[in-house]
Amino acid sequence: MSDQRVTRPTPISGFPEWSPEIRSVELRWLDHIRAGFERYGFASVETPSVEALDVLMAKGETSQEVYTLHRLQADADDDSDARLGLHFDLTVPFARYVAQHFNELVFPFKRYQIQRVWRGERPQEGRFREFTQCDIDVINVDQVPLHFDAELPRVVHEVLSGLDIPAWTLNINNRKVLQGCYEGLGIGDPVAVIRAVDKLHKIGDDGVHAILLGEVGLSEEQAKVCLDLAHIRGSDTSVVDEIAKLGVRSELLNEGLDELGFVLDSLADLPSGSVMADLSVARGLDYYTGTVYEAAFRDDPGYGSICAGGRYDNLAGQFIRRSLPGVGISIGLTRIFAKLVAEGRITAGRHCPTDVLVVVPSDERRGEALATAARLREAGHNTEVYHQADKVGKQIRYASRKGIPFVWFPPFEDGRPHEVKDLATGEQTTADPAAWPARRG
């Protein structure tokens, strides 16, 4: 035993990692999501894990969440890394990307981005410091047609419906409805009210009421209307009539109601319960300007949003002197997947992707085993060669433990045929590695 110090391996809170058989399921999910995005014409983009801090700050009040970079042995006179941070979402990097590559892109630019992001918040159920997001966004010059506000939820519905996850609902609102209503009430700081209402599901009516009266300085009547608005829900445009009954009038409110009604009408063909107008959805970040989305599990709404996003007008414009509005939505893959793993609802995949294990008959015949494996790979089979010339039984046990469905026996003697054993049935037959059918276990 060496005297070398042993560092005890311990998991880091908020940074999930999976066994190979669970990771293989996550990879299948990622492939499914990617294919769903591409069916609607979204192109893949990947941005660096780090951005300049002034870019990351473009989204609003996020400084406490950003992980900054510095080298352990950094030069005291070199502060270049201190101006960098890990991206905490994919929307801001995308806005920077569009501005930077403006002359190379075709607009409307439809992109998807599937990457890990990092947030320095306290880990808890459903909240991680490192996680994977799956985003789709549309950015255009000057104006994004409203039908994209309805297309994005349709894409997400199609994608998530193809995964075996608990029932969920996508809640939709429009920031113009909120801001227009607050302005119609004579409230001087509508954004402060939006931030307060965004906490409704966390602190309840009494908590929001206290903030509206105390911190925001509303009257009792103004606070009551704000809370009444937040409690309006519906699956169709009848919510527009409910909002009208509040008796508030403003141009911006009317504009928001028209947009909300259009999106609800466009999604009316989706199964009942898939989409709901929920006037409590506010999305506290400052840059949202129109439609906003937030999805949650129906039986566990307190778990947190599994999908969120909305329309933004000025985010990309902070990096270029052009009007580049956009609309986007993000699937919180890690939040969804981790919940199902914790609840035992993920059926584990195989331990490895290998279809065939080629037995090594002897050290002298390793070359034959390697040549056999090469032919099997050319035929489309994931193939590995056993690592040494052990007893055949030991090699078969290795394949069985790893869940490899087939074991291939190259000739043990000159003039003998190849044979393959199906570990599921125990059947062993002669076979030609160049013509063996492309079966998968």
Helices and strands, with pairings:
Blueprint: H1 20-39, E1 43-44, E2 50-52, H2 53-56, E3 84-86, H3 91-100, E4 109-118, E5 130-139, H4 147-161, E6 168-174, H5 175-184, H6 190-197, H7 200-214, H8 220-230, E7 233-234, H9 238-244, H10 251-266, E8 275-278, E9 288-297, E10 307-312, E11 326-332, H11 333-342, E12 356-358, H12 366-378, E13 383-385, H13 392-402, E14 406-409, E15 419-422, E16 428-430
Parallel strand pairs: 1-4, 6-8, 12-13, 12-14
Antiparallel strand pairs: 2-3, 4-5, 5-11, 6-9, 7-8, 9-10, 10-11, 14-15, 15-16
Looking at this protein, list some descriptive labels.
13 helices, elongated, alpha+beta, 18% strand, 441 residues, five-stranded mixed beta sheet, single chain
